[in-house]
User: Fold Zn-dependent hydrolase from Rhizobium anhuiense.
Amino acid sequence: SLDGDRLWSNILSTARIGAHGKTGMNRLALSASDAEVREWFASECRALGCTVEVDDIGNMFSVLPGSKPGLATIAVGSHLDTQPAGGRFDGILGVLAGVEILRALHVSGQMLRHPFAVVNWTNEEGSRFSPAMMGSGVFCGVHDIGSIHALSDKEGLTVGEALDKIGYRGEHIAGYLPMAAYLELHIEQGPVLEADGSKVGIVSGVQGLRWLDVRIRGTEAHAGAFPMTLREDALVSAAKVVLATEAIAHKYPPGVATVGSIHVAPNSRNVVPGEVRLEIDLRHTEESGLAAMEAELVADIARLVPQAELSVVWRKSPVLFNATLRETIQEEAEGLGLSALHMVSGAGHDAAHVAVKVPTAMIFIPSREGLSHNEREYSSPQQCADGANLLLRSVLRIDEI
Amino acid sequence: SLDGDRLWSNILSTARIGAHGKTGMNRLALSASDAEVREWFASECRALGCTVEVDDIGNMFSVLPGSKPGLATIAVGSHLDTQPAGGRFDGILGVLAGVEILRALHVSGQMLRHPFAVVNWTNEEGSRFSPAMMGSGVFCGVHDIGSIHALSDKEGLTVGEALDKIGYRGEHIAGYLPMAAYLELHIEQGPVLEADGSKVGIVSGVQGLRWLDVRIRGTEAHAGAFPMTLREDALVSAAKVVLATEAIAHKYPPGVATVGSIHVAPNSRNVVPGEVRLEIDLRHTEESGLAAMEAELVADIARLVPQAELSVVWRKSPVLFNATLRETIQEEAEGLGLSALHMVSGAGHDAAHVAVKVPTAMIFIPSREGLSHNEREYSSPQQCADGANLLLRSVLRIDEI
Ligand SMILES: NC(=O)NCCC(=O)O
Ligand SMILES: NC(=O)NCCC(=O)O
Assistant:
């Protein structure tokens, strides 16, 4: 078993890198604070016997050699980047648990048969550069490296430039490392486990998603002098889109639908809004439900706001994880006396990309009040240690196969 | 009559100071570009025989002495500040027409009996510092100078500091100048004159307004993992407020109601919005209509979004202009062969404050498509010249009284 206290103290101490508010994080992908936590991760892993390899999208692989030649790597991991006002556990737990597995192996002197890697995927959150889960997407061939390098943030800096700036455009071609299995430990980010009372979640898969952009043009006019009947108020139209988006989710349970972001121009009290841009996020566990939500919302928007310009910027189908790995995790949870719930992940994860080419599974631990992408995100030291120990035991079992 | 070509070329040439886009303006109150246009205005007026006086809120008075001792000043004016994405005529026309009256008097060698002043009021727009019509409000004793100096912009710079920074905290106490009459020429900023076909508007008064701030707190959560039934989505609540605001105007014609500005946190696509702030603008020609709109909207918001926090940041009752001055303007319009419509102003104006202590009236010219607070704001050279000539003729008539 691994050192839960050490895991907890690393979570707290690395949370200083990009801290935001009292218990929050603002460590955007490829920012200076991302660079700083990457250096910490690399030097920690090197001290535990790893070589640290970086690919051309900045994914980091801390690799321990295995005892039996010719075997593919068993990998665990997650991400060290955060939302602009996120928490201390989302992604971070999975990478830091991997570091503690390295430490447990180092301390015990035990060598695995397979090579073993702890992965830090680049830009899981998608807050600075869209889409989310970028590094794992390139690794798995879902995105082409050239077009991803050319994407830019709001300041116009491209992914390629941001990688160069922090020195993380690595020499390896993304996807270079053959993996025998990939496991990811993560906080649930929803209220299901807490409500159910189970200690851990065994994730059956990840729901699908659609990201839509909506642009609504109206006519800027004087808020006092321009009559109601002649107005083209882009914010009034946008409000209808926000409510239609919420309604579509209620119509297709267990689907969820969110307008997370809105930009209004000129955004001045006494000016009728002339232009609004909205960012919509739709999710559903079934591809059919997701397709129906998308089609109906597009039709609703066309009816309510005929002048709206819509574009679908990302479509991802639901993903199923590997049944054998899920069974192995179930058995190890029983061995550790951890009650487990089989559940679908509401959030997207790097594992959802990796699953396309590698046998993959995920372990969840509860999130207090189900909160995530929130500075109040919290899981207890015991919950973190439980998840990390289950991850370690699962890795040891898989290594025997 | 005055030089319409000169007026037009001054509108175009000073529009370079704080130009925004192709035909727009971004000359926020007390900014560097505001300072630059103030210097232009002062030197132009000095060259035409004026002394330029500045009060402690930065209002500028370019004063010509009169021939008959002991008379109060006849003033014309408006403002040289603009919206962040405004037009080239709003406010600017009224000040530049005043400069052309000075030039006409200068060229003809004619001296008025009364002292004559062209006024540039500080911060009419209210885009950088709220409330709007700030300088004229202090001049007329509606606002206390100390509390106005202490107000700050989004960067935390106070009005007092901004005045010092551009050297426009003047030596005169606001309100020092006794006025016999105040006339303001302005673009209509709405579509009424264009639709009616009249050449000019004679403004009977200015409608009243209410500025409300609404703050809605929800709970930030993961847009994929947090179930719909448990959400407190601040943007969904805000959308209801936007639609309720629009509905209230339709219920109380000819009232208008606008949510011009919205701020969402954290404003990230895959995060359920945790907090939204809205800025509402309500107007009505009747105080009773305005009060009903306010009361009913407050009740609607309390019912739709019980957790909303509301505050009224500004209340201004409708204002009636001086009947004698309006009649004088009407007669002069007839003399010039300009068809005139008597109308209420939809927009607020410095004249609405000045009217509290000085006999006041306003002249409108048409706005193309009724557009203002918009880069496409436009009135033709002929329309500008018509308005300015009517202003000149009215001043000459009032001077005889
Ligand atoms: N796990 C997580 O927060 N992923 C970010 C991508 C998403 O699901 O919105
Ligand atoms: N005339 C004008 O645009 N005034 C600004 C204040 C307002 O009416 O909103």
